[in-house]
Design a protein that fits this description.
This protein has 316 residues and is mainly β. It has helices spanning 4-11, 50-53; strands spanning 18-25, 30-37, 45-48, 58-63, 69-73, 78-81, 87-94, 101-105, 117-122, 126-131, 139-144, 150-155, 157-158, 162-164, 169-175, 181-187, 194-197, 202-204, 207-209, 220-222, 227-237, 241-250, 259-263, 269-271, 283-291, 294-303, 309-315. The radius of gyration is 21 Å and the shape is globular.
Length: 316
């Protein structure tokens, strides 16, 4: 069913993709399936706000086509270019006290459909009941976790949990017990690092791009000019003391592309972004700073050599 915003956009004659959604309802936990398609228009940028679908707090939005995911606040708008095909498919799930964004049956569009996932609750540990057909083998479950998740089984068996620290996604193969079900229990420690995606920062000069693979979130900041382009994040620091700013980037240009780093418009410090093997090879550079608890703006500005492709800023 189209969202209310899509009806309004259509009534206004706006050239925007139609967004529709449906959901799997497990009570306090609802998984939303969002579909976007282009109506023969020219605008292929789709947008939806999870809070308007009924979600609140932290949510994880997963692109079923690319496998990329974004952790975000439900009240923020999720925006993505759906490309020449003009179609996009997403799963939006809450991230509760377990710190798990549970996506259900890997490789399925409606991955938390009731025939596969019988129940989901989150009381600080996420509990999910998995249903199997008679004689069916292992089922791969997947999702988001800020750190390698802890798994126990109340019913059935499971293999080892695979965790990708770069994407913060996990997967695990589970097998049914004699009654044809499995019950998984998942939780994860909160990450000591907070991610701030570059494509969602303030961009003056750089553009949000998805040309080169390996990024997290929905893209990266692609600097366009030799000088003055900047990416600026607004970050929150919970405790006073020493903090590390880690910039994930790719630089296939063959030479260093230093950026000037400023905090709240203060004194600038150049930070080196050395060349990587190619534009799809990602690396990290860091700077250590002393900050009091509070909110800061962190800006990375090109100073004559343009900039690397900036994926995200991590603050620890």
């Amino acid at each position: 069913m189209p969202t209310d915003a899509s009806y309004v956009n259509d009534a206004k004659g706006l050239d925007l993709p139609v967004v529709g959604h449906t959901y799997s309802d497990f009570g306090a936990f609802k998984a939303h399936y969002v579909f976007a398609y282009n109506q023969n228009g020219t605008n292929v940028t789709t947008s939806f706000t999870p809070a308007r679908l009924g979600l609140s707090g932290r949510v994880y939005v997963y692109n079923t086509g690319t496998g990329a995911g974004t952790l975000m606040d439900a009240g923020a708008a999720f925006t993505e270019n759906i490309g020449a095909a003009g179609r996009g498919s997403y799963i939006a799930v809450p991230v509760g006290g377990s710190n798990i964004g549970f996506l259900g049956d890997a490789g399925k569009i409606a991955s938390l459909g009731k025939k596969r996932i019988g129940a989901v609750t989150d009381d600080g540990t996420l509990h999910a009941t998995v249903n199997f057909a008679s004689g069916e083998g292992g089922v791969t479950l997947h999702g988001y976790a800020p750190s390698a998740p802890r798994l126990t089984m109340s019913r059935g068996t499971a293999g080892a949990v695979f965790y990708d620290a770069a994407t913060r996604q996990f997967s695990v193969v589970v097998n049914a017990s004699a009654d044809g079900t499995a019950v998984v229990n998942l939780s994860a420690a909160a990450s000591p690092a907070t991610w701030y995606e570059a494509e969602r920062a303030t961009l003056s000069g750089p553009v949000a791009s998805q040309e080169w693979p390996g990024f997290t979130g929905t893209g990266y900041a692609d600097y366009q000019h030799a000088s003055a382009d900047y990416t600026e994040w607004t970050v929150t620091v919970g405790a006073s003391g020493s903090h590390t700013l880690a910039f994930r980037y790719a630089n296939g240009g063959g030479a260093d592309r230093p950026l000037s780093i400023t905090i709240n418009g203060g004194s600038a410090a150049n930070l080196s972004f050395p060349a990587t093997a190619d534009w799809s090879t990602w690396s990290t550079v860091t700077r250590t700073v002393t900050l009091n608890a509070g909110t800061y703006t962190i800006r990375a500005t090109a100073t004559g050599s343009s900039g690397a492709n900036i994926d995200r800023l991590e603050v620890t």
